[in-house]
Amino acid sequence: MENQLESLKQSSTIVADSGDFATIATYKPQDATTNPSLILSAAKQEQYASLMDEALYFGKNISLAATHDKLFIIFGREILKIIPGRVSIEVDPRFSFDAKKSQEKAEYLIALFAKEKIDRERILIKLAATWEGIVAAQELEKKSIHCNMTLLFSLPQAVAAAEAKATLISPFVGRILDWYKKKEGKDSFPPHLDPGVMSVSRIFHYYKKFGYKTQIMAASFRSKEEILELSGCDLLTIAPKFLQMLQQSTESAPRKLDGTDSQKLSIEKIHLDKSKFLSLLSQDEMAQEKLMEGIQNFNQDLKLLEELLQKNRERN
After folding, report:
1. What percent of the chain has pLDDT above 70?
2. Which residue, of 26, 107, 142, 228, has the greatest Cβ tally within 10 A?
């Protein structure tokens, strides 16, 4: 009998939100995604010590930044041995408000992958969905460097990313829910009224209505119900505990989002420049707060990863 995960795969491409190879191999996703937090978690595990050593050897006469860049590449390389599709690798979050440095870092990461004989078509460069990150993505896409816009919490961010021809966006469903639960003093929302689910559904219908090619990969789930409510979204990146829950269930996962429905909706087109983008973002308390919080958290985890690498460097 088909399990719920297999049923869900009929409507959406499944991506593993993990840097752990065993987990990825178990659930057989099409793609996988990483970020500084996931790499930090994986790097602490003993089974990845040899990968840590490889990164340390590479960066020993260069810099700590070169070491953690190489570590990301190594994890990406090993993940690509397991999956048939693409892996997402994050640009240094400290460059979130610097388009030029973001672009340069992305090109450097792609060059490192090329040295591993990995084609750029299998790589998605993750950039924060700031205005500067979106500008960087626009330039990178012109060079066939495909981008995944992350830390995305609002329709204006999604529209700007699509206009820049970014390959993919990653709206963060659960973090939106977290904010509204705290703001409204609620313990939960019905799945179809979940603010994160509603935000992604709105973006989905906007994209399909106006024929954008940018794909939507819903991320950061807090429950299995959120995931099922977005069945039909282009991609769903799912943490291991929810992959396990879906695999263990024999219930169906009917499609909830369908692009044919989008054409029937009355949706006003949004026209953006930098000023309009920043104005709309500043009016959205949730999106602005969660974007900054996300960048700060990734910065903190990258700092912790560098401290871990430094300790190992000194040991060696």
Report:
1. 99
2. 228
Q: Specify if 316 maps to a domain.
A: no
Question: What's the chain's length in residues?
Answer: 316
Q: What is the pLDDT of residues 16-74, one digit of tens each?
A: 888 788 888 888 889 988 888 888 888 888 888 898 889 888 888 788 888 989 999 99
- Report the CATH number at residue 120: 3.20.20.70
Number of domains forming the structure of the chain:
1
- Kindly list the catalytic residues: 126
84 lies in a domain? yes
The answer to whether residue 315 is domain-embedded is no
Alpha-carbon distance 132 to 149, whole Å?
A: 11
Q: Are 125 and 91 in contact (CB under 8 A)?
A: yes
pLDDT, residue 316, reads 62
Task: Give the range of the structural domain holding residue 262, as residue numbers without chain letter.
Answer: 4-310
Contact 173, 197 (CB under 8 A): yes
* In-domain check, residue 137: yes
pLDDT for res 302: 87
